[in-house]
Write a structure and sequence with these properties.
It is a single chain. By secondary structure, the chain is mostly beta strands. It folds into 3 domains: about 100 residues, Immunoglobulins (Immunoglobulin-like); about 120 residues, Immunoglobulin-like (Sandwich); about 60 residues, no CATH class. The protein is about 0% helix and about 50% strand. It contains 1 helix and 24 strands. Strand 3 and strand 4 form a beta hairpin.
């Protein structure tokens, strides 16, 4: 009977006396007489390799391990392996069952972005898979993440090709559900630089700011890779007495004197005005560019 037990261990985060713990629960209820459970906690130390953290034998249908910042840290992927057995009858034991790996720390959704220089805002969700603890009575009950961007060695060196809607986000305590215990949002927009500089890659970094909790102080979340797809841009010209070339390549001359609307965007607050004055002689009337104003 024990060999066919379906224990189905699952890891969930929990605050126990103000400290972050992981709980391994398993079901269904064991058969009579009472069955013991051997619970092995481990963390992913390198791809495909696990490092044992803690082992215990219990009659309870659950087991706890504390995220102490030493044996178990933020950024770890954690597993619990459960075996049921009857004490004194070692042959009567179930097959060991693994839980799914639980990633403890900050997640970005999506984990990477590919956007274009089209002015659109893209929502990036920042969430914590572990609960936010309140360090003290007078300390703020939140984790502040400082956000920054960096260019990743594109063909044309320069500032990052993305801008953020905020320089920092606050993760506030909340109920844990669906792998999220706290969440915030930030929008990412590609810089429209009017330069044919090819596709560029930037990264977004998040760092806990002035965290009192030792668990967060030494933690560095994974970066988010943002690829910006370069889009071709159009140019328009007005030069000399004025010859005008439009964005779509149409050419004409304008010899009128006065102030004119040269270009206006229908989607954003952007206008260019041009002023033309009489620069001809008494023999001919000619208008020339003499001023420009842009908003």
């Amino acid at each position: 009977k024990l060999a066919s037990l379906a224990l189905q261990p699952v890891i969930t985060p929990e605050l126990v006396q103000g400290r972050v713990h992981l709980k391994c629960s398993y079901s269904p209820a064991p058969p009579e007489p009472p069955v013991h459970f051997r619970v092995l906690w481990s963390r992913l130390s390198s791809p495909g390799k696990r490092e044992q953290i803690q082992q215990e034998t219990t009659l309870q249908p659950f087991s706890y391990v504390e995220m102490d910042g030493a044996n178990l840290r933020l950024g770890d992927t954690v597993f619990c392996t459960v075996t049921a057995f009857r004490r004194g009858s070692p042959e009567q034991q179930s097959l060991p069952e693994d839980s799914k790996g639980f990633y403890a720390g900050i997640k970005f959704l999506p984990e990477s972005l590919e956007i274009a220089e089209d002015g659109k805002e893209h929502v990036l969700t920042v969430l914590s898979t572990v609960p936010i603890a309140c360090p003290g009575q007078h300390d703020p009950c939140k984790i502040t993440l400082q956000l920054s961007t960096e260019d990743l060695g594109s063909q044309v060196p320069g500032p990052p090709d993305i801008i953020l809607s905020a320089c920092q986000v606050d993760l506030l305590p909340g109920l844990c559900s669906e792998s999220s215990c706290a969440a915030a949002r930030v929008t990412v927009t590609a810089v429209t630089d009017f330069a044919q500089d090819g596709n560029r890659v930037s990264r977004l970094r998040a760092r806990p700011a002035a965290a009192r909790d030792v668990l967060w102080r030494a933690y560095t979340p994974r970066d988010v890779k943002v690829t910006v797809r370069d889009l071709p841009t159009g140019n328009c010209y007005s030069f000399t007495d004025p010859h005008i070339i439009t964005f779509d390549g149409w050419r004409y001359d304008s010899h009128k004197i006065g102030t004119f609307l040269l270009s206006r965007s229908e989607s954003r607050a952007f206008e260019v005005h041009v002023r033309q004055w009489d620069c001809g002689s008494h023999r001919s009337t000619t208008a020339c560019n003499c001023g420009v104003a842009a908003r």
